[in-house]
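Folded chain entry
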Amino acid sequence: MLSGEEVLLTAYGGFNARDIESVLAVMHLDVDWPNGWEGGRIHGRHAVREYWTRQWSALNPNVKPLRFSTDDSNRTVVDVHSVVRDKDGNIIADEIIQHIYVIEEGLIRSMEIRKPEVSSPAAPESN
């Protein structure tokens, strides 16, 4: 069985290569997935396939994992550099985001997308 990081590296590589089958192979049959483009959530491999087929017909997204960590709930948090281009190659979005995964028995069970948490600057000390 692949480690969580290996599962996710397989998924990112397949996504960027537009190899839907390799990504779906590391997803739970009833995966819970965010529809980051149109909004809401989708469920199941078939729904993910349909979503990505629509998305890739209009956009050219590329995601590069930068750092893997684990949160307090034992979810895998991946800092990702996401660059989304339109079909003419113009950049629509270029940002660092986080993908938060639940991986069960070597398969992606769910994923969330969020902006990275920014720590607050320390309050100045008063004398």
